[in-house]
Amino acid sequence: MAVQITIRGVPEEVRDVLAARAALKRQSMQEYLRGELMRLASRPSLDSWLDEVRRRKDAAGTSVTASMILDARDADRR
């Protein structure tokens, strides 16, 4: 069952940017925002994503230092 969401206090400038983005996609503001909300909800939050990365890193038992990353990055620049 679909629900309605009301957001109050959105600055006019933000509304204008969103309306322009919707127009570029030839969508109504409602269609555009529904799609953006669905896209946002389909992805994990940053905190849950970081928790999963940390959990996988701990489970792997490996450690990569910052200097190892920088050395690998710079290896092909020499």
Question: Keyphrases for this structure?
Answer:
0% strand, single chain
SSE order and pairing:
Elements: H1 12-24, H2 29-41, H3 46-60, H4 66-75
Helix pairs in contact: 1-2
What would your notes on this structure say?
There is one protein chain. Helix content is 65%, strand content 0%. The mean pLDDT is 93. The chain has a domain at 46-75. The protein has helices at 12-24, 29-41, 46-60, 66-75. The chain is mainly α. It has four helices and no strands. The termini are far apart.
The residue-averaged pLDDT reads 93
The rounded distance between the terminal residues' Cα atoms is: 60 Å
Number of helices: 4
For the report, how would you describe the main beta sheet?
Answer: none
The arrangement of helices and strands along the chain is: HHHH
Radius of gyration: 21 Å
Poorly predicted ranges (pLDDT <50, ≥5 residues)?
A: none
Shape: elongated
Number of strands: 0
Note the quaternary state here. Answer: single chain
* Fraction of helical residues: 55-70%
Structural class by helix and strand composition: mainly alpha
Strand content: under 5%
